[in-house]
Structures are given as C-alpha cells and as structure tokens.
Amino acid sequence: MIEVFGKTPEGDDVMRCQIRNGGAVASIITWGATLQDFRLDGLDRSLVLGGNDMAAYLGPMRYFGAIVGPVANRIAGGQMEVKGQHFDLDKNEAGRTTLHGGLAGFSDRNWSFDMTGPAECRLMLSHPDGLGGFPGNISVGVTYRLDKSGALDIEIIGMTDAPTYFSPAFHGYWNLSGKQDLSDHRLTVFAPTYLPVDDDQIPLGRPSPVDEGPFDYRMARPVGAVLDHNFCLPFVRGQMQDACKVEAAGLSLEVSTNQRGVQIYNGLHIQTGASRGHGGRAYGPCAGLAIEPQFWPDTPHQPGYPSSLISPGQVSKHRSRFEFATND
Prior knowledge:
The radius of gyration is 18 Å and the shape is globular. Helix content is 1%, strand content 42%. The model has no long low-confidence stretch (mean pLDDT 96). The strands form 7 sheets. A 9-stranded antiparallel beta sheet has the order 10-11-12-13-27-23-22-17-20, with no helix packed on it. The chain is an all-beta fold.
C-alpha cells in the first residue's frame, strides 16, 4: 500500500509504503528513507519512535528512523582530504563538526520508491557531487525487508563516480516497552572494545578495552546515563556478526550487521516539545535507544581505522538485521 504522507518544503509529495510479514508491519516514508512506524501483532504501540506528520520530521524528529549519510556520525572540523584533495564540508553541529552528512544529507532528502511489494520495498537517491561538500555523484539505494519470522532486514548499497567516503547508517530509536524512558531496558553489546571521544564526540584514537568499565555491556545491564559511543565489533569480511541485544517488557531485540562497529546512543538529548509522536506522545530525554551499525566514526582523520573510502566501480553494501522475540 502506497499513500501520500505529506509535502516537502518545496511542495513535492512524500510517500509512505507499508510492508508486512511474520506478524510485523513496517511503514516507510520517502523523506530520509525513514522507518516511520514498526509494530508487532498483539502490541498496541510502535517499537520505533516517530511522527505522524511532516512537521515533526522537518523539526525535532529530523533523524528519527532515517538513513543518514553519506557519512553517518561525525567528521572532525568539517573537513577532509580525499586522495590528496581538500574538501570543506557543512559544519552543521555547533559550527565545529559535520554530523550525518551535513545540512542536506540523506536524511534531509526526498527519496523515491524503486520497488514495492507485500514484504519489502526499495528506495533510491542520487546525491550530487559537491552537496554538503562531499565529492562524487553518489547513487544510493536502501531495501527494507520483513521475513516470515517478522525480522527486519535493512540493506544500503552505494556507488560513486569519484573517490569519496561512504558510511551511511540507519538511525532508528527503539523503545520496546512504550514507557517514557529506557529505565526498564537492559542492553548487551557484543564488543570487547569501544572508542573514547572528546567533548565534540570525536574519537580520541585507538579502541580501548571495555573491561569492567562504564562501557562494558558484554553482560546485560541497564542502559547507562551517559552513552553515545561506537563499539568495535569482531569482524569477518562478508559475514554478519552479532552487535547487540536489548530487552524490556518481555521482548528482546537482537541486532546483527556486516559492519565493523555500532554506535549506540541513549537519546539523552531528545526533546520533541510540541511535535507529537506515536500515540500523541511528546518524546523526552532517553525516550528511545538509537542503534546505528556503521563504520567507525571520523575515518578520514583516523589512518589507523578501517577506511570507509570507496572508489568508482566499487559497490559498498551495508546490511543490518533487527530480530524480535518474546521472552518467557
């Protein structure tokens, strides 16, 4: 089913598609290729935070459920070099860093449906050379797919006609219980190391062991009061790896990915004010947990990190799986 959801600032139609399978229903809008709603049979609530009109997505819910990029997370100083050439990027975070692709990143564009079916849909976007300061004409597609178990599979594919950095991510906020915050949620992260950051959330360098410190989530524990960090996952090229597990209200969400890291953010700074979300709720601090499989942040300035640089002729594939279960 496809319907009009709203209008872009330029007056173009934003469309919404609904897919279903295995007792799950997902609604995706073309603005930001956003997962706007996700429900399981028997529950009276969406498991992702979202809005019911375009005003919310043009305001405080800008990244909620969107595909962010071309480079998710932050690039220090709003600048980078590619093959010896300097590029100035949008400094859209406190005038100091580039966040989620800048002012006109993937999340702030109206994609188009390339394919829709009962259980899957694919959206496409052309990101022109120089937009936000990023080099290369980037072609990107994202497929949302529900399998017969109700698991959600998200695959992002990108190509370019010039060398560029490409590290998109799905930026959904999850809340399994429907409560106002995450106080009843428990988190497990299958990572032995994480990236410490400075005051601008830029990595300080090499990964640090999580060993029994505040970011040791190898055993399930409550979501912390301070959490907006990249966890470094075990990596085998071409294989999906377990990233994390969230539990609350008799439900569990297990996330796996083919990416090298997962950024987990407790939503401390969420404040939607007059913009209401699902069920007429205004979302406040820690209303949802962002789980963002991706490359490690700031790779243009971190030569010791795995690089997210792609070249013409290369196809970059980012896949993540979100699987739900009822806990006895």
